[in-house]
Amino acid sequence: MRTKVGIIGGGPSGLMLSQLLDLKGIDNVVLERQSREYVLGRIRAGVLEHGFAELMREAQCGARMDAEGEIHDGFYIAENNKKMRVDLAAHTGGNSVVVYGQTELTRDLYAARDKMGGTVIHNAEDVKPHDLKTDAPYLTYRAGDEIIRIDCDFIIGADGFHGVSRKSIPGDVLTEYEKVYPFGWLGVLSRTKPVSPELIYAKSPRGFALCSLRSQALSRYYIQVPLSDSVDDWSDDAFWDELKARLPDDVAARLETGPSIEKSIAPLRSFVAEPMRYGKLFLAGDAAHIVPPTGARGLNSAASDIYYLYHGLVDHYLNGDDAGLDSYSQKALARVWKAQRFSWWMTSLLHNFPDAIPYDQKLQQTDLEYLFSSEAAMTSLAENYVGLPF
Ligand code: RFL
Ligand code: PHB
For 210, left (φ over 0), alpha (ψ -120 to 50), or beta? Predict the structure, then answer.
């Protein structure tokens, strides 16, 4: 088989790039290790920044997001039994975010790929990129007993944090920066009415909690838990009790509880791999960088990589200009690091750190007080949360 762009990973990054390239007539193939059902069963992001939503529209996949997603122009930070509102619109010249689940947007991207007759190969085992430093790179994968080869001009590693792409860059070329936090988030999805029309990020002496939503009938809640906890340690009742104990009294009193329809723990980690290009291989999204979910930046950072790559590849194929591809790693990383900084800051502001000394706790308290007393600090939070320009 031969294609122009071989894409490893059929998550949001890989599917979005595939769709955008196809719309420009640039032939590509997506290789996904899992089944479609498995990919659509993962519950992840809920908040999309403006730039991501724009890219969905450019990919001709924005109709359902625009009809069913909710525009949010603010959220709350709760502490000490009080809720304080972050007015995103007022601090960003009217900007906002879209609440629309990653599961739904992935479904929309699959539907768009099907409609255009795009090639997305599922259950592709042992995917391997080869000859990345030559002009004839290729991919292989296994389907049953058969090894299939795909010759490409470029290979895109959009295969998430545990993928094969980053691992195929030699160790002496790649620098990895990592910070592992001493806690995770236990998330619950439930068919209940959300406790608040806008998200609530709650700081509490018992640990962080987040009230989010997927729709007016589907709620998504998270609580900070020690890394040693497992999902089996948390019955639904124990989860609801702990969540209530971390929320302001009036919010806890209104909380509608019900059976969980999904429950999972995600460890919190910050990670960046540099550079994001090795010969004909380009890394994008979680394959190159991940953030703790506190700032809702993960998927949104992936979107800016895809934006730069898409334009770089279009310039290469349609205009014979390689400047965009040559500057990809540098441009993408500049924005990636800003998302890293913001996610680290929001995580540090709102979580309980088991090894914090009283001095650290005072600084954390002061950081929060400063935020709600300074227009400049609030503007900085708001412009990062809605997303810096691509
Ligand atoms: P993905 O989604 O991990 O997709 C990668 C795909 O590659 C496949 N794969 C392989 N395929 C072939 N061969 C291999 N060897 C392969 N290895 C892996 C995988 O099966 C998978 O289908 O990466 P992508 O596309 O870069 O997308 C990144 C986002 O998924 C991620 O950044 C966000 O979910 C992060 N995130 C959030 N981001 C936001 O912007 N806003 C949010 O509100 C938000 N909330 C969250 C989040 C992530 C969370 N978790 C669970 C980590 C909330 C949570 C709880
Ligand atoms: C979510 O709804 O899953 C969500 C929302 C905001 C975050 C992280 C996750 O910061």
Answer: beta
Question: What lines the ligand 2 site, CB under 6 Å?
Answer: 45-47, 199, 212, 220, 293-294, 296
Cβ atoms within 10 Å, residue 373: 9
Closest CA to 72 of 196, 187, 188, 191: 196
The tokens for 15 are 């599917």
Q: Is 230 helix (H, G, I), strand (E, B) or coil?
A: coil
Of the candidates 61, 67, 66, 65, the one whose C-alpha atom is nearest the C-alpha of residue 113 is: 61
* Domains and their CATH numbers in the chain: 5-72+95-177+269-352 (3.50.50.60)
- Identify the pLDDT of residue 64: 96
By DSSP bridging, strand 277-278 and strand 200-202 are: unpaired
Q: What residue owns the CA closest to ligand 1's atom 36?
A: 45
Residue 292 binned pLDDT confidence (cut-offs 50, 70, 90): very high
Going by alpha carbons, the residue nearest to atom 54 of ligand 1 is 44
Helices (H) and strands (E) counted in the chain, each on its own, are 13, 20
Output the CA 46–ligand 2 centroid distance in Å: 5
Q: Which pLDDT does position 50 carry in this prediction?
A: 87
Q: Which residues contact 349 (CB under 8 A, 6 or more apart)?
A: 203, 364, 367, 368, 371
Q: Is the pLDDT of residue 184 over 90?
A: yes
Q: Which atom of ligand 2 is nearest to the CA of 295?
A: 10
Which range among 42-51, 145-154, 251-260, 376-385 shows the weakest confidence by mean pLDDT? 42-51
Report CA torsion sign: 378, 379, 384, 385. Answer: positive
Q: Which of 272, 299, 304, 346 to mutate to test the pocket of ligand 1 (most atoms within 8 A of CB)?
A: 299
Q: Which of 220, 199, 213, 194 is nearest to 74 (CA)?
A: 199
The pick from 44, 220, 351 for probing ligand 2's pocket by mutation, whose C-beta has the most ligand atoms within 8 angstroms, reads 220
Q: Whose CA is nearest to atom 3 of ligand 1?
A: 160
Count, residues in the chain: 390
* Position 278 pLDDT exceeds 90: yes
Which DSSP letter does residue 24 get? T
Nearest-angstrom CA–CA distance, 386 and 86: 11
Q: How far is the CA of 300 from the centre of ligand 1 (A)?
A: 11
Q: pTM score, two decimals?
A: 0.96
Could you tell me which of 281, 29, 278, 32 has the C-alpha nearest to residue 155? 281
Amino acid 43: pLDDT: 87
